[in-house]
Amino acid sequence: MTTVSDPSQRILELAAALDFRAAAPLTESLLAMRGTALTIDASRVERIGGQCLQVLLSAQQTWSADDTALSFTNLTPGFVEGLRLLGFSEADFTKEEMPE
Amino acid sequence: MDAMAAVKQTFFQECEEQLAELETGLLAMERGEAESDTVNAVFRAVHSIKGGAGAFSLEGLVQFAHVFETTLDHVRNGALEPTADVMAVMLRAADLLADLVAAARDGHTVDSGRSEVLVGELTALSPGGAEAEAEEEDDMSDFSFTPVTVAFDFSDAPVDIGRSYTITFKPRPELYAKGNETVLVLRELERLGELEINCDASGLPSLAALDPEGAYLEWTIKLTTEKGEDAIREVFEFVEWDSSLTIQAADAGSSDAEPGADSTEDAFAALLRSIQGDEAAQPATTAEIIPLPSAEEREAVAEVEAQPTKAAAARNSESGANANAGAPQTIRADLERVDRLIDLVGELVINQAMLSQRVMEAGHVPGSAVALGLDELEHLTREIQDCVMAIRAQAVKSVFQRIPRLVREVASMTGKQVRLITDGEGTEVDKTVIDRLNDPLTHMIRNAIDHGLEKPEVRIAAGKPAEGVVRLSAMHRSGRIVIEVADDGAGINRSRVKAIAVEKGLIAADAVLSDEEIDNLIFLPGFSTASEVSNISGRGVGMDVVKRSIQGLGGRLSITSRPGKGSTFTMSLPLTLAVLDGMVVTVADQTLVVPLTAIIETLQPKAADVHGLGGGSRVIAIRDAFTPLIDVGRELGFRNTATDPLAGVAILVETEGGRRSALLVDTIQGQRQVVIKSLESNYRHVPGIAAATILGDGRVALIIDVDTVIANSQSDATILEPVLAAAG
């Protein structure tokens, strides 16, 4: 996971394997960026599991409560397929509101 | 080790256990004990391996386990009779499964041809044959919903477009911690039919309050499937203990169908669960699961709360995958931690011995309060040591369970019929011994079948059953473990053995040997009775190597043989390699320990018995036989000049191949149990020294490697042999 500094917009690049090992570092990275407008780049994601999904959903919720922009970009087929199996669609992650 | 590697390691450990269960169960089935518990245990073993392998994307393993499991399922549901032919294929499939697991673990591959052949054989066993299986395979490789023909189609039943289930699934953190994954479960579920997945994230905290390793989401899944509830439960098999799970069946989607007809499978499934105690604590629920032949919509709810409830316990014991309710609880512990504990207890024993000695030196008499307190401490220390040693103790079952396969393989290669009987599998011995038991035992079993048992026609001609018996047993005897490999074959052909020994120059042509001595010739280096090197026993390893490796463990190997009745190889091993019974001796002011297992007797040399042979070599006459007398002080470099044998003590020891030598030491201090400390890991390897120990006075004492000392002394004095032969 790497971050790219940008004065107006920060970008967080997700790891390829968002499995149970990735959840803790992902949370840390996100918490470090709290309060800033953030774009999450999913271009490397090959698969996503339940715990990383939780982290991303919680981030959406948190950014929304903070009234800060959070968006997802470059959703890969692997990412979308994982989301589908976990009950979400691509649309849930390309809009900024928290999915119901 | 990272988390994933650790999880994977656990998976492979569990595979070992499952493979053992599988083997045990299949062998029981082969004996005709195909009770539902046994068949279920066998099925679960393969299913568990498949499930774990799927989580690690071990495709080859998953594919084969799937075919194997499908065939086992036919046995489980009574569609396939477990005849001898069927069981032979199953056993070979179990062997291949074990190889596939080992290959996945060690990162090598298994001959795909073997796998294909067995897949073909397993498939051919299935009712409906290859076609039904082929469709099943297609179904596996396709994640999207494809309606498939059920193998056991009730041809007269109306066409059913599927049944609807509502599943709620809420993982707990443990589910993820054990390496399981919701996505994989849902993907597996999707193979059963069409899914409508909804995730409830209302319990999700804000990021600051979120535990990344927690579990907050709950899924509600609507599944339309032609499969029964059992198939759904199987998907959740590995995770239901770490989640809250409900499966609710509704009659939706089958309104066109005649109500009672399509529910037959479910009704049977529910009845089966009920019989097996699945719903033992919920009889009312069981009744509800069976859809009644009524047109009105009914709902049946079967809930499995992933809590250790009575019902859960009943299911657990039925499944056989987890410990039975009455079985002792176990924990997995890192071997290094246990070893560290053993080391520390060893230190404690040494420390306690040192303290005792100091107290005695300080003038406290035995019987004084201090001495009595120390006695109690010693007692307690010994007890702790025994308890700690018991942690490392393992049943020999882990070694024995590999033997049936070996027997099958060797029997098929030699064209012999063999029945293996094992006894005393629960006998416990230290893990260090277990780990080094496999090779000698493997060779002994090979030897028993290849050289011991006769071919079926020879046996019949001798009035014996065509099937030979190899009996493998383990028992505790006098603080040691005794393992016997007995066959009911022809016994040792003594005249042939003697002729070969003469031919190979191992004994003199006119040597007069007792039966026992002739039998023991097969342990001599360079001896091989097979006139042609066979593929089985003759792998460049003779019985001498087997004997040496057993002696390396502080053990002894002996043989008894009766012509026409068979032979019995008996190995006796110490229960642990962490402590050793030794004789403490003094050589050139050094304290040394001679392992007691090597010692036959001790004696005071007399002037008339000791003869010099030149070059510093000497022999001693012990009961009409000349035995090399080795000056341990000189051999180990403690002194340069030869010591006076009359002033010392000779310890008669037995070497590999049964040869005897006498070790000359200055004095014998006594006999005691010592804690073994590795010299290699604490210092470096020293030729002639096996290990070290710390004595009560705090001094380090070296433990003599008897075999090496003798081997070295013989290479120093090669002139000895011919002279001895002439003298003998």
Automatic annotation (TrEMBL), chain A:
List residues traversing the bilayer: none
* Top-level taxon in the UniProt lineage: Bacteria
The stretch of residues making up the signal peptide is none
PROSITE patterns the UniProt entry points to: STAS (PS50801)
Q: Where is the STAS domain?
A: 1-100
Which Pfam families does the record match to this protein?
A: STAS_2
Gene3D superfamilies named in the record? STAS domain
Q: Do you know which InterPro entries this protein is assigned to?
A: MlaB-like_STAS, STAS_dom, STAS_dom_sf
- Write the protein's name: Chemotaxis protein CheX
UniProtKB/TrEMBL annotation, chain B:
**Native organism:** Aminobacter ciceronei
Provide the catalytic activity annotation: ATP + protein L-histidine = ADP + protein N-phospho-L-histidine
The molecule here is called Chemotaxis protein CheA
Pfam families named in the record: CheW, H-kinase_dim, HATPase_c, Hpt
Q: What is its EC number?
A: 2.7.13.3
Domain HPt positions: 1-104
Q: Which domain of life is it from?
A: Bacteria
Q: Where are the transmembrane segments?
A: none
Phosphohistidine modification, residue list: H47
Domain CheW-like: start-end pairs: 579-715
Role according to the record: Involved in the transmission of sensory signals from the chemoreceptors to the flagellar motors. CheA is autophosphorylated; it can transfer its phosphate group to either CheB or CheY.
Against InterPro entries, the record matches this protein to:
Bact_Chemotaxis_CheA, CheA-like_dim, CheA-like_homodim_sf, CheW-like_dom_sf, CheW-lke_dom, HATPase_C_sf, HATPase_dom, His_kinase_dom
Instruction: Report residue spans for region: Disordered.
Output: 280-327
The segment(s) forming the Histidine kinase domain are 374-577
Top-tier EC class: transferase
Spell out the Low complexity composition-biased ranges: 303-327
Gene Ontology molecular function: protein histidine kinase activity
Q: Which UniProt keywords apply?
A: ATP-binding, Chemotaxis, Kinase, Nucleotide-binding, Phosphoprotein, Transferase, Two-component regulatory system
